[in-house]
Amino acid sequence: MTPAALSRLGPPLLVILLGGPIGLGLLFTVLPAFGYLPALGGNVFSLEPFQRLLAEPGLWKSAGLSLWTGLAAALLSVALTTAFLAAWSGTRPFRAVERLLGPLLALPHAAAAFGLAFLIAPSGLFFRALSPGLTGSATPPDLLIVNDPLGLALIAGLVAKEVPFLLLVALAAMPQADGERRMLVSASLGYGRMAGFLFTVWPTLYRQMRLAVFAVVAFSSSVVDVAAILGPTTPPTLSLRLVRWSADPDLSLRFLASAGALLQLALSALAILVWIGFERIGRHGRENLAANGQRFPGDRAVRWLALVLQALTVFALLAGILALMLWSVAGLWPFPDFLPLTVSIQGWSNLLPRLAEPLGNAALIGVLSALFALLLALFCLIREDATGLAPRWRSPLLYLPLIVPQAAFLFGLQLMALWGGLVPSILSLTLVHLVFVAPYLFLALAPAWSAYDRRYEQVAASLGGSAWTVLWRIKLPMLSRAVLASLAIGFAVSVGLYLPTLLIGAGRITTITTEAVALASGGNRRVIGAYALAQMLLPALGFLLADLSARLIWRRP
Amino acid sequence: MAAAVTGLQLSQIEIRSNAAKLLGIDAHVAPGTVLTVMGPSGSGKSTLLGFLGGFLAQAFTASGRVRIDGEDITALAPQSRGAGLLFQDALLFPHMSVLGNLLFALPPTVKTRAAREAAAEQALTEMDLKGFGPRHPDTLSGGQRARVALARTLLSQPRFLLLDEPFSRLDAPLRAQARRLVFSEAQKRTLPVVLVTHDMADAEAADGPVIRIGTPA
Prior knowledge:
The complex is a heterodimer. Chain A is mostly helical. Chain A has helices spanning 3-6, 10-33, 48-55, 59-88, 92-106, 109-120, 125-130, 152-177, 179-188, 193-222, 225-230, 238-246, 253-292, 300-328, 346-387, 394-403, 406-420, 426-451, 455-462, 467-478, 480-496, 499-505, 512-518, 525-553. Chain A contains 24 helices and no strands. The mean pLDDT of chain B is 88. By secondary structure, chain B is α/β, with parallel strands linked by helices. The A-B interface holds A 178, 181-182, 184-185, 187-193, 196, 199-200, 203-204, 207, 287, 290-295, 297 and B 53-55, 77-85, 87, 89, 91, 93-96, 100, 103-108, 110, 113, 116, 152-153, 156, 158, 162. Chain A: Residues 359-546 form the ABC transmembrane type-1 domain. Chain A: Keywords: Cell inner membrane, Cell membrane, Membrane, Transmembrane, Transmembrane helix, Transport.
């Protein structure tokens, strides 16, 4: 059988493996939301779960918080990405940030959030750097910075993580926007750099990125782990309350949780609708400005502002990692001191034996789901080579798991497993992780795959290579760098997954990520620092391995 | 150098790639005339235009001065030079209508929307494209797109034109027509023009001085 023939399996498999869990999961969320789940004693359809949901105190406040933090984080992320692209794309500072994108993307959300918390908290690294010299005080300021009721810390944490993602998506879409030549034309017409980019390149770019932006809106309005670490507590965001209901030992709360998950689904849909409204307004404004012919030639100050803000997000993530490192080995560390007075590895030595299993689980599930996702992506891409085009439904299907709020279908999957008497296993976790790993891996690999000069394949075939030989000996080796990088990204996504692991692992299989987030409310910074670093370790290793293997393959004698 | 020299003055321009000299040019392009720079591909023709327009790629270094009507623009940003560019492709922005493309080019000194649209319509009429405003660039023929691109460039009120083989993608009969149109418009507006090409017929139609660069084959 030729690769092309075998690859016919790709698209149907992708539909089944991505669409299946989402569809079934949604179904099993909808049924209990309307009171029906015989396994838990719900034998008749009713609106009772929704009545209970609406009776929950502070429900609308939680819902409002989710909507506000989600939209604000998405708006800031898109604005910052846009401004940075407009001001600096193609320049040296831009390439410096570009090189950092992979590692920043691989940084798990939870680790990034912990790092940010350790950085900006009243007794965090930031105020230690300022005190007592600048603040004039030897005690931490009495401010509610982390877990602030408006969710500003949560918004900041989301922005720091979503900007690298959006930049990566934008970079992949760049070739279609013909940016360089359009910038030449707009500059020769007298437009400043940023205005020229916004008027002529951005519209094409944004159209390519739109689903990714929707994913950011939906993710930000339904995020669980970052909200647990940085978000408001009284009340918390809707997503966090759902997860608490679903984890309650009282199983009857599952009906409430399912109804809540549908509310979350509606809320994220509403967030996207509002976003589409923003798009309309933005587009109208842009078209009017463009037609008025204002040139905005002097954009120096704004360009530098964009660079400073971009550098700030990168710096916050890196400084957060430094804070985690310091705390993980801190002995005595009184407030205004920037560095710990004593260093102790006791935290680490106590934790190491307990870290082994969750690290091992995360690594195993990560490797399996990344390899599985790579096979799936290769099948689909080879099939696209054979048919000559990507199916219309490819992008929507790939973005579906990133746009539908996780809780909305994961609750259902969890209940389905309960109903079917399925015991959590590495295999079931791998299959659920695949739903999220496959899209990212696919999106990382597809640009390089489609940019490949297929005449190499024709040359190899005309030299007598079979279809398999051409694939194994020519195409995959030539694309090895992209393949390895996409594997590293897939692995990093899997390691960072919190809610899927929590719900499908059901406490029986834990990974480093579920363990780390579980510590959030505990507040022991030494333990959290160690766990968050351990969580970062795996994706970092993945990227290192990918890079080393690529160097080995491409080494020149 | 006297400040009153009109037209485009290229004084002792030299472009180098690393240490190697790519080209040297010293010329004066009077208003309404066309300087044709001919050379084989790789001779640095487009690099010269990049230098004049302010987009010299980082791999190159250049010396010499560029003056327009006596004003030294060598160090100015691209958007402040007043260079009107035309490329092989029309490069009409695909997310704007024909009218949108023209309004984008029209300087903001034309204030009201009605006046702006009237100016754009006028430009379309001059290009024999009356009523094409609402059309999408994709629905235009190659010749029509080239004329919209010319109208767009002229509407931005450039001080000189830089033409990078703008006729090479057109079919032969259209090519002669497009040349006549571009050169007559430049003459009418007394714009100095630098044209780079490898097509001898372009140089003949330009009817101006010709400079050859690069080693002849």
